[in-house]
Design goal:
Blueprint: E1 3-5, E2 12-14, E3 16-19, H1 29-41, E4 46-47, H2 57-65, E5 75-80, H3 85-99, E6 104-109, H4 117-122, H5 127-136, E7 140-146, H6 151-163, E8 170-174, H7 185-188, H8 190-196, E9 199-203, H9 219-228, E10 233-237, H10 241-253, H11 259-269, H12 280-283, H13 289-292
Parallel strand pairs: 3-4, 3-10, 4-5, 5-6, 6-7, 7-8, 8-9, 9-10
Antiparallel strand pairs: 1-2
Length: 308
Amino acid sequence: MIFRKLGRTGERVSAIGLGGFHLGFAKDTGEAVRIVRRAIDGGINFLDNCWDYHCGESERRMGAALRDGYRGRVFLMTKFDGRTKKSVAHQIDESLQRLETDHVDLIQYHENIRLEDPDRFFAPHGPLEALLEAKKAGKIRFIGFTGHKDPIVHLRMLEVAAEHKFRFDTCQMPLNVMDAHFRSFGRQVLPKLVEQGIGVLGMKPLGDGHLLKSGVVTAIECLHYALTLPTSVVITGCETLERLEQAFHAADTFRPLGNEQVTQILAKTKALAEAGRFEPFKTTSMFDGTAKNPEWMGEAEQMIEPRP
């Protein structure tokens, strides 16, 4: 396994990370446990998850897998949806209970997909207050944010964070062979993260399988492209042991792509990438969990006070 620095955190993490959402698609808890433990035994130490994945089942399955000494071998990350201090504190505690641990190494503000989401994060009685209290209590170590919709929102989050003199430890976003051509996180956000020393977590290297439907790239090409970018971790979903072995094969065979190889891959994906055809997470609401379930954000209790 390849290991890389996670931004300025001082941590070294596996270049391939195991996605938590797809664990909910494993045929049962036993299969999910086998996938997680095989991943760890094979050198993957970065585990991704989220409070809302499969109504908490992804976290419960991962928690079961982390028994018997496995928890101490991983860098564990989860995400939260709350937009208020109260809802975030509650979701942190629920995630810890499901994951069967007293702390997570990294927690991230999930679905930063609206232009007002950065303001919500820093608002009085908002998520950051809960996170800082949780960090002081030893429940979390590092703080990041995620999003899949539009790089404009990520850029605004970085701007608002700078206004508050706050630097995130990590940032998660889609990085793949189609992203390079349409609303590109790789072109617009990635350079700023590298410049600021923020750990880069690439997700959707296969676009939840949609990229492969284009017929012009293979899974290994997609993973190698994402690994070639200045990422700390490329997170990939594995609902079967076979899919996990594909990820291991990508790591085993990886050599950074040269400029000519990157040019060739981007040339054959350019026309197909127009209008986000194979990136529905950018162009449709089908991946917007917080839009479909506003109660996850604690909106009923939310009042954003104007910033001074």
